[in-house]
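[job 4471] stage=fold_predict status=RUNNING
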Amino acid sequence: MDCRLGCGACCIAPSISSAIPGMPNGKPAGVRCIQLNDDNLCKLFGKPERPAVCHRFKADRDICGTDSQQAIQIITELEQLT
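[job 4471] inference complete, writing structure tokens
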């Protein structure tokens, strides 16, 4: 599965413990990453300063569901379970 352009769920719902440019302590779950632009596209995509955890994330129907709202719900539930 390819990422849905403009979804941004993986940059909003989960916590990220590694440093992100502009967010040196990472980000808590449910907080929008500072590196998302107004179209929910990552400003660091393809750049070396993009965190490894973000680079390793691969879209999958089980995680991303059928639309952006479902992706937020699934990732939020997984975040709460861990």
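[job 4471] summary: Residues 45 and 55 are 8 Å apart (CA to CA).
[job 4471] exit 0
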